[in-house]
Amino acid sequence: MRIVLPGGSGQVGQMLARHFHARGHRVTVLSRSAHPSPWKTLSWDGRTTGDWVTALEGSDLCINLTGRFVNCRYNQANRREIVASRVDATRVLGQVIAGLDRPPALWMNASTATIYRHTLDTQQPNDEFTGVLGGGEPGAPDTWNFSISVAKAWEQAFDEIPTPRTRKVALRSALTLSPDQGGVFDVLLGLVRHGLGGTQGSGKQWVSWIHEVDFIAAVEWIVGHPELEGPVNLAAPSPIHNRDFMRVLRETCGVRIGLPAPAFLIEIGTRFMQTESELVLKSRRVVPGKLMQSGFEFRFEDWPGAAKELVKRWRALQR
């Protein structure tokens, strides 16, 4: 296949590029900053057309992952960049794909499981069929509502331009965990190893996650199943409470002590670290309804097995 990855220089993009390149597919990454890689990289600004358009003509698959990182304070300048980077890139891709003579058969666009409501209850989890989108939950901080508004605007931009010859799938991804340096798992493991991997906040918030292997397999599954369209949740079928998520990670890593971090300390710490508490404290209880209904089988359904494999590979990378 000919595969184009706009915004493919981030963790998930590099993960997919490595996988597809290793299997002999022709991979082109569109990036604001070129860097040496085994696959082709073209420059783009995520807003305007350019030479990169030729990469999409006659391609088989486009996976757009463009978006400014959200590990920052949500001040007005950062908010504008977070929204614009996602919406502008999605719109220009839609305009280009709609006008191509030979557009890709499938366009996947990044989205996020954060789009669903914050819930601490144990009732129905959020799938694509009956899940409740968030926004305006009682007591939810402004930053949480902002993240949900970003997700909604992102998907609206994805849907607004008709591409009748190109199937479209919005990837509502949970925490995507791989042992790569600087990734979410690497950060969480760093907390555990330094004795800071205790319960975060109340510990009742749900953590939705997906192992790298299953994320890649799900993308390939979507390629081969044309009935899958619209939003698709990329999350393991077993979300887990934060207190249990962190406990399993400590036990897997062989660390006995993990200092808890009450919500007020997280607020102070995230402000000091120039990030937002929403990334830790918001509850996400998301399940992969469409994937499961279509017959997809997860290799890592439960967190203990996934944590064990990830810790093992993380340690191997340190040698």
TrEMBL record:
Record-linked SUPFAM superfamilies: NAD(P)-binding Rossmann-fold domains
Pfam families per the UniProt record, alphabetical: DUF1731, Epimerase
NAD-dependent epimerase/dehydratase domain boundaries: 4-228
InterPro entries (alphabetical): DUF1731, Epimerase_deHydtase, NAD(P)-bd_dom_sf, SDR39U1
Gene3D superfamilies referenced in this protein's UniProt entry, alphabetically: NAD(P)-binding Rossmann-like Domain
DUF1731 domain: residues covered: 261-310
Similarity-based family: Belongs to the NAD(P)-dependent epimerase/dehydratase family. SDR39U1 subfamily.
Protein name: DUF1731 domain-containing protein
Higher taxonomy: Bacteria, Pseudomonadati, Acidobacteriota, Terriglobia, Terriglobales
